[in-house]
C-alpha cells in the first residue's frame, strides 16, 4: 500500500515514511511504499498545491498529516479535501499538539480524519503512552477490529496498567481550568521566544510559530544544529538539533528545535522567555567565536569547547536563573 507523509526536513517525523536515496529508515517506508510531501521553500508552510499534484499521480491509500517540527497550524480540512479527491484514508498524528488540541489552542482533527494518533507525554504532559482514535464509517466497517488486532497481538504484548492509570489521571487534569491556562501560556510564551529571537537577527522556519515550538534556522550564521546543541548542553540548556527545509542530510541538520512547555510548566512567563532568548543568542555568539577560531569541522569545534570561559560563565548564569523556578510536585 502507498502512503504520503510530511518530509523529515520539512518537519515530518521519521515514522511518517522517511527514507534516503540509499536506505529506507523507518518501518513505514520499509513495509509501505512512501512518498513525502514538503513545505513551500519560501513560506515554510505545507505546500498543498504540490501535495495535491503528487497525490493525484501517486494515489496513496493513506495520507498522514501532523508533524514533529512544524511550528504552524495544521489545516486538517485542506488535507481532508485532498484525501477525499484521491480516495485515501486520512490519518492525523497529533503527538506534539494534543495538549493544545484538547484545550482549544489548535484546531481539532477529529471531524476531518479517519484515524487520529497521539503520544501522551508531550504537550499533553502525561506519562509515556499513546492513544488511537478512529471513526466508524463505510470506508472500513471493521476498523475497530483491525486496529485492536494490530495493537494486540500484532505489535504489543501485555498492557502497562500503571501507564494507563497515569494517563487517566492526567486526562482528568487536562480538563481543569489550570491546564487550559497552562496550554494557552505555552503558545504565548513560544511566540514571545520566537519574536525575541527574530529581533536579535535570527531566522526561524516559517518566520515564527502558532504553537508550542520554535524551529531556529542556523544556516544563515554558517552553523549547524549539532554545534549549537552542544554549546547549549554545556550551558545547561536543553534543546535538540533538527533538520530544516532544504537540508541535504538529516545527519547534519541546519537547525535546532526549542519547546515552550517545560519552562512554562515551571512557571516561566513572557519576560522569562525573553531571557531564554537572550541565553540562546549568547550560545549562538559563542558558537560563532569558537568556529572562527577552531574551524568548521565538528571534531575541531568540540575540542575548542573544553574549559571555554564564556560557556562556564553562561552555565553559571543559566543555572542560577533556572533554580529560581520550581518543579510541579516537588
From TrEMBL:
Name used for this protein in its record:
Serine hydroxymethyltransferase
Q: Which GO terms describe its biological process?
A: glycine biosynthetic process from serine; tetrahydrofolate interconversion
Enzyme Commission number, as recorded: 2.1.2.1
Q: What does this protein do?
A: Interconversion of serine and glycine.
Pfam families, per the entry: SHMT
Q: Name one GO molecular function term.
A: glycine hydroxymethyltransferase activity
Identify the Gene3D superfamilies for this entry.
Answer: Aspartate Aminotransferase, domain 1 (3.90.1150.10), Type I PLP-dependent aspartate aminotransferase-like (Major domain) (3.40.640.10)
Keyword field: One-carbon metabolism, Pyridoxal phosphate, Transferase
Q: Name one GO cellular component term.
A: mitochondrion
Q: What cofactor does this chain's UniProt record say it requires? A: pyridoxal 5'-phosphate
Catalytic reaction equation(s)? (6R)-5,10-methylene-5,6,7,8-tetrahydrofolate + glycine + H2O = (6S)-5,6,7,8-tetrahydrofolate + L-serine
The enzyme's main class, written as a single word, is transferase
N6-(pyridoxal phosphate)lysine-modified residues are 122
Record pathway:
One-carbon metabolism; tetrahydrofolate interconversion
What species does this protein belong to? Answer: Strombidinopsis acuminata
State the source organism's domain of life: Eukaryota
